[in-house]
Amino acid sequence: MNRLDTLRAALAALDRNHLRRIRRDNERPCSPRALIDGKAYIAFCSNDYLGLAGDPGLADALAEGARRWGAGAGASHLVSGHYTVQHHLERRLAAFTGRERALVFPAGFMANCGIVPALAGRGDAIFADRLNHASLIDGMLLSRARAHRYPHLDLAALERLLAASDAPAKLIVSDAVFSMDGDVAPLRELMALAARFDAWLLIDDAHGFGVLGPQGRGTLAEAGLPGDDAEGWRLIQVGTLSKAAGVAGAFVAGAEEVIEWLMQKTRTYIFTTGSPPALAQALLASIDLIEDGDARRARLAALIARLAAGLAQKRWKRLPSRTPIQPLVVGDNAAAMALAAALMDEGLWVPAIRPPTVPEGSARLRISLSAAHALDDVDRLVAAINRLEDRL
Predict the structure, then answer these.
(1) pLDDT, tens digit, for every residue of 189-239?
(2) Which of 77, 133, 148, 243 is catalytic?
(3) 265 is annotated as an active-site residue
(4) CATH code for 56-291?
(5) Would you place residue 270 in the very low, low, confident or very high pLDDT band (cuts 50, 70, 90)?
(6) Catalytic residue among 135, 143, 174, 179
(7) From CA 158, how far away is CA 141, in angstroms rounded?
(8) pLDDT in tens, 1-10
(9) Per CATH, the architecture of 24-50+294-391 is what?
(10) Is 88 a residue of the active site?
(11) Burial group, residue 93, by CB count within 10 angstroms (0-12, 13-18, 19+)
(12) Is 243 annotated as catalytic?
C-alpha cells in the first residue's frame, strides 16, 4: 500500500467512526442568520458572543483603518511591521484588563504556542488541566518541558504534582472558560497555588473576555485578579480578539518585564508578519463596544437562562454552564451526528463535537449563544431538541 492509499484508508476510517469534519460555506456575514447552499438556517455555532462580528460600526472602523493604514503590515512587528494604531490598541488592552502591558498576536493559537515555550523549557515543568485547549497542549509539547496533566479542575491533584516537582521553573496553564464544557476554572485557587509553589500562572481567557466580569473585562477581573496582590506578576492573561470582540487576533497581558520578555523570546511573535494595522483600528472600536456592552451581556444571560430552563434532558445531558457555551452531551458519535443532521433538516445549525476534541464517549452538540439571537430562536431550538430526544 503506497502513502496515498494509506491516506485513503485513514479517511475511510474517519467516515466509519463518524469523525470526518465537514466545512460548510456560509453565504452571509457572521450572524445567527446563515445561508448554506441556498437554504436559510438559524446558527448556534459561532463564538460571536456579543454579536459584534457583523456590527456596522466595526465594519466602518475596519474600512476606515484600511483607508488609513492599507491592507497589510509588510513585515514582522520587530522589523518594520508595527504601527502606532497597534501601539494604541496594546495600551488600551492593558488598561482595560488592569495590567501593566499587553502584546497583540495575529491569532490565539499562535499566542499560546509561542508563550508557553518562552516561559518554560527543557528541565522545567508545566502543569496543565487535562481539558485545556489544543493550543496550550501544543505549546506545552513545543516547550520540551516535563508535562504534567492533572484531572479537570482537580486542585488536590495539581497541588500534589506541584509539591513533588523539583523543577527550576514551574508553569501552571489553564483555560479560564473551557471551550467544550463551558465551565470556569477556579482562578483564585490556582493563583494561590502558583504563589505557594513559586510558579507562573498562564490563563487563557479566550471565551471569557468580553462576556464575563465587570464591563466584560474577563474572567480574571470577575475573580478579582490580579488585584493589588504583590504576587500579581506571576499571572499572565491571554485573551482572544476573534470571539466576543468580533474581529481577529489575540493578546497577552501582564507585568511590564514579563511582556518585554515574551516580546523578545516568543518565536510565533518574532518570526511572523504583523497583523494588518486596519484590524487594530476596528479592535479599538470593539473594546469601546465591549466596555459599554452591559445590555448585550444582560441579553446573553437571558438567552442562557431560557435555554437551560427549556431543555427537557431526558437521555441527553446539558452540562452546567453559565457561559454562552452550552454543551448537550449525547455520548455516541453517530447519535450526535444524527441529532445535528436532524436539526439541520429543521433549519437549525448546531455543530456536533466528537473526539479527539472531547473525550471518547462524550460526543455532544456545542450550542453557542449570541446576544444577536432572539428569544424565539432559542425557543425554536429547545422545542426541536426536546422533540428529537423522544424520536431519535
Answers:
(1) 999 999 999 999 999 999 999 999 999 999 999 999 987 777 899 999 999
(2) 243
(3) no
(4) 3.40.640.10
(5) very high
(6) 179
(7) 19
(8) 899 999 999 9
(9) Alpha-Beta Complex (3.90)
(10) no
(11) buried
(12) yes
